[in-house]
């Protein structure tokens, strides 16, 4: 349809594009990119929001290099991700494969059941699990007692706190993640599976040599996005433990949060934010390398 | 044949047991909200001490006000976001204009910048704009999630051109065509995105916590979190408040569960 002269059409398009894209572009620049530029700028200052900003050069960055609390909290973030991501991926994959074996009404009901915690928001999930984790009176300990296991302290002890928080995050995200993997498994052509079976491969072998390689892009996507999410878990920790007991759950983003909003060290908080941003950017770039470019461009 | 039958039964039973384990906490949440302070920790499926007392205590003006605030914020964010993201996605899919690639790269790039990472500088920016403790300050930063733009663009790339061309021949402008022809036919992408934006905003705890100290604008997540951290947590009231605030989301969830499930399958959004 080239009823318009080319130049006029192009100009009309450009004007329309400005109008259509304007609100989003301005918003993204002001509320996403400007904060990053601002974080870099503020990270060279000392600032408590009230008195005037003081230029301190690289002092904030020098400080974070030797800030053992920061490195410990970053270590806890890493520990969180290293425990959380593999468990999430393996369980979600097992669930997704299980779902393919079911059919009909029951299958829909079961899948919805796994997806339900997804609708329970993180503050409510934290509240609910704090309630279940109660030490003397809680439901979980009562259940364990039935099995002959003594009371556990959960978020009340330094050794179990991280695992207890991870359990809550797993609970909310497992169903959603398995749906993503299920969608990928369903896209594997049936002929390939049948061909493998005809060649004498059992279900186990067929899965690992046909299905698993073909869902690799989704697997990479799931692993990378859950890693990034694991680096950013803040709301659940804030509600459940505020970083305690004895800093056992004080992860990187929580340390940044406390420095910035509790001690009002905006310059130092910004420097830490910049470092965290660079870490997540590297993880994202790894994802971009692994996922096919065509996924984004098509 | 017989063997695979047995196998699928075994898988079904294991999955069902897992499903029950996943759902039990939610059942406990609702049942416990019908119990008293004394009985809230007593394990029983049918609450023998059935009472509406805790729910009545939980339904304070504070909670109702917070629920209303959350409803307003989530609805405004969802409606505005759908509109501007649909327009932006449409422009990226259909129009030819200078710097189109660069624009798309900016949109994609913003996907790599999650809210938690920029929480501190975002707060500073909003503070400089003098928007802290205001509805605008609460809403504006939550609108610009580029997943919306990206998914609308993908949808419009596959959208049949013929309809728009007919409308344009009838003399409708770009915007008229978009509003009257394109937008009403965008349901397949709007529904999952509406759920995602509404849930995401309703769920958001950090941004309202940071940007707003004004009691009259308090959202329900902040209200609930404050209840727990208060001294002498009365678990029966806290649990009842949590149960009440999860209801709106569950209603949405059950109405749209099929579309949500398919939405995750096709778009991969949260």
Walkthrough of the structure:
The complex is a heterodimer of chains A (298) and B (270). Chain A has 298 residues and is mostly helical. Chain A folds into 2 domains: 1-40, no CATH class; 68-297, MetI-like fold, CATH 1.10.3720. Chain A is 74% helix and 1% strand. Chain A has helices at 6-42, 59-65, 68-101, 104-115, 122-133, 139-146, 161-186, 190-198, 203-214, 216-232, 235-240, 252-262, 266-290, 293-297; strands spanning 45-46, 54-55. In chain A, a hairpin with a 7-residue loop joins strand 1 (45-46) and strand 2. By secondary structure, chain B is mainly alpha-helical. Chain B has one domain (49-267): Orthogonal Bundle (MetI-like fold), CATH 1.10.3720. Helices cover 73% and strands 0% of the residues of chain B. In chain B, helix 3 (61-94) runs parallel beside helix 6 (135-143) and helix 8 crosses helix 9. Chain B is globular and about 70 Å long. The two termini of chain B are 39 Å apart. At the A-B interface, helix 1, helix 3, helix 4, helix 5 and helix 7 of A face helix 1, helix 3, helix 4, helix 5 and helix 6 of B.
Q: What is the count of structural domains of chain A?
A: 2
Number of helices of chain A: 14
Q: So what's the CATH class of chain B?
A: Mainly Alpha
Q: Total strand count of chain A, please? A: 2
By CATH, the superfamily of the largest domain in chain A comes out as MetI-like
**Low-pLDDT stretches of chain B:** none
Give the SSE order of chain B as H and E letters: HHHHHHHHHHHHHH
User: What average pLDDT do the residues of chain A reach?
Assistant: 87
Architecture blueprint of SSEs:
The complex is a heterodimer of chains A (298) and B (270).
Chain A: H1 6-42, E1 45-46, E2 54-55, H2 59-65, H3 68-101, H4 104-115, H5 122-133, H6 139-146, H7 161-186, H8 190-198, H9 203-214, H10 216-232, H11 235-240, H12 252-262, H13 266-290, H14 293-297
Antiparallel strand pairs in A: 1-2
Helix pairs in contact in A: 1-13, 2-13, 3-7, 3-10, 3-12, 4-7, 8-9, 10-13, 12-13
Chain B: H1 2-32, H2 53-58, H3 61-94, H4 100-110, H5 119-128, H6 135-143, H7 146-157, H8 161-169, H9 174-182, H10 187-203, H11 206-211, H12 220-229, H13 235-255, H14 257-267
């Amino acid at each position: 349809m080239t009823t318009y002269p080319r130049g006029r059409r192009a100009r009309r398009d450009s004007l329309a594009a400005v109008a259509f894209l304007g609100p989003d572009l301005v918003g993204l620049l002001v509320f996403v990119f400007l904060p990053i530029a601002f974080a870099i700028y503020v990270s060279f200052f000392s600032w408590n929001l009230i008195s005037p900003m003081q230029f301190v050069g690289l002092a904030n960055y020098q400080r974070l290099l030797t800030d053992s609390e920061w490195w410990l909290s970053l270590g806890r973030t890493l520990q969180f991700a290293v425990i959380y991501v593999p468990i999430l991926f393996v369980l979600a994959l097992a669930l997704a494969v299980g779902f393919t074996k079911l059919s009909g009404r029951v299958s829909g009901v079961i899948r919805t059941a796994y997806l339900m915690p997804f609708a329970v928001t993180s503050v409510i999930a934290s509240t609910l699990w704090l309630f279940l984790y109660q030490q003397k009176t809680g439901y979980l300990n009562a259940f364990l007692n039935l099995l002959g296991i003594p009371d556990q302290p959960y978020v009340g002890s330094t050794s179990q706190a991280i695992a207890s928080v991870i359990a809550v995050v797993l609970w909310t995200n497992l169903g959603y993640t398995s749906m993503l993997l299920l969608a990928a498994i369903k896209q594997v052509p049936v002929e390939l599976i049948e061909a493998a079976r005809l060649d004498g491969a059992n279900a186990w072998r067929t899965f690992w040599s046909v299905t698993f390689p073909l869902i690799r892009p989704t697997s990479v996507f799931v692993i990378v996005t859950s890693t990034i999410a694991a680096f950013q878990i803040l709301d659940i920790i804030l509600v459940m433990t505020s970083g305690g007991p004895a800093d056992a759950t004080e992860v990187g983003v929580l340390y940044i949060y406390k420095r910035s909003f509790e001690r009002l060290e905006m310059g130092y908080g910004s420097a830490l934010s910049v470092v965290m941003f660079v870490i997540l950017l590297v993880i994202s770039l790894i994802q971009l390398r692994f996922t096919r470019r065509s996924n984004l461009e098509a | 044949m017989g063997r695979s039958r047995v196998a699928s039964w075994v898988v079904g039973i294991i999955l069902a047991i897992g499903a029950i384990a996943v759902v039990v906490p939610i059942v406990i949440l609702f049942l416990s909200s019908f119990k008293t302070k004394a009985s809230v920790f007593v394990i029983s499926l049918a609450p023998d001490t059935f009472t509406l007392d805790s729910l009545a205590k939980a339904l304070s003006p504070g909670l109702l006000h917070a629920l209303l605030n959350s409803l307003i914020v989530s609805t405004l964010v969802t409606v505005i976001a759908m509109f501007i993201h649909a327009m932006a996605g449409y422009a990226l899919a259909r129009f030819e204009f200078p710097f189109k690639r660069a624009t798309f790269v900016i949109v994609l790039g913003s996907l790599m910048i999650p809210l938690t990472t920029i929480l501190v500088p975002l707060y500073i920016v909003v503070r400089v704009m003098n928007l802290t403790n205001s509805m605008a300050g609460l809403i504006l930063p939550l609108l610009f999630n580029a997943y919306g733009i990206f998914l609308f663009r993908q949808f419009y790339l596959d959208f049949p051109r013929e309809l728009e061309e007919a409308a344009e021949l009838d003399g409708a402008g770009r915007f008229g065509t978009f509003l009257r022809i394109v937008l009403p036919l965008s349901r397949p992408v709007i529904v999952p995105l509406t759920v995602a934006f509404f849930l995401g905003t309703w769920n958001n705890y950090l941004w309202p916590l940071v940007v707003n100290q004004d009691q009259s604008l308090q959202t329900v997540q902040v209200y609930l979190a404050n209840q727990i951290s208060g001294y002498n947590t009365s678990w029966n009231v806290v649990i009842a408040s949590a149960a009440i605030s999860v209801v709106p989301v569950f209603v949405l969830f059950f109405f749209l569960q099929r579309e949500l499930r398919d939405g995750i399958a096709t778009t991969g959004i949260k």
